[in-house]
Design goal:
mainly alpha, 3 helices
């Protein structure tokens, strides 16, 4: 269900940015695995911890967004008196 809410667009941008940061951090961890120095390993451990927290936060954001979409679809179905499943599905994907 499309939305024109500016805060939703901002949140979508933030989620996209978070995904990109996570992807880059994962790549950095993968590409620095061969560094065995204490400083490197300490930095990698901190990055891994932050990456884990970022992944959890991303999952929470995505779950919240899904719940908002479900609620918006439900409200639209009620508003437009969608009587059957086909009407509800079409409204969810095309409006």
């Amino acid at each position: 269900m499309a939305t024109t809410n500016p805060s939703s667009a901002t949140q979508q941008q933030l989620i996209g940015d978070l995904r990109l940061v996570i992807e880059n951090a994962e790549e950095l961890l993968k590409n620095t695995d061969h560094y065995t120095g204490v400083v490197y390993q300490s930095a990698r451990a901190k990055l891994a911890t932050a990456l884990s927290a970022a992944n959890e936060e991303l999952a929470r954001f995505e779950e919240d967004e899904l719940n908002r979409m479900i609620e918006a679809t439900r409200a639209a179905n009620e508003l437009h008196h969608d009587a059957d499943g086909e009407a509800r599905i079409l409204r969810a994907f095309y409006h």
